[in-house]
Design a protein that fits this description.
94 residues; 57% helix
Length: 94
């Protein structure tokens, strides 16, 4: 196991992964932000904003999580968890 793989594993095994850890892990995994932005046809800045949590893109976040071999919740908590609100009936304004 080479050094970068050990570092990525250590980052992802930490109790909390911050945006810098995600960016470093992507770089160490051989998938720089430029590659992710190229794959989705968006700017590098957009990918940075998604990693930092300033904006959201389910597709880009899923791609990043898959590249790092983890799940969305591990990287961004509940930001991408969608739960059903139950059987709420629409209230009429009449």
């Amino acid at each position: 196991m080479n050094h970068s793989i050990k570092v990525v594993k250590a980052i992802l095994d930490a109790p909390y992964v911050d945006s810098n850890g995600i960016l470093y892990a992507l770089q160490g995994d051989g998938c720089p932000v430029a590659k992710a932005s190229e794959d989705f046809g968006c700017s590098c800045e957009t990918v940075y904003f998604i990693v930092r949590g300033d904006c959201r893109s389910f597709d880009v976040a899923t791609y990043i999580a898959a590249k790092l071999g983890t799940i969305l919740r591990r990287l961004w908590g509940d930001a991408y968890s969608f739960t059903r609100k139950g059987n709420q009936q629409r209230v009429s304004n009449n």
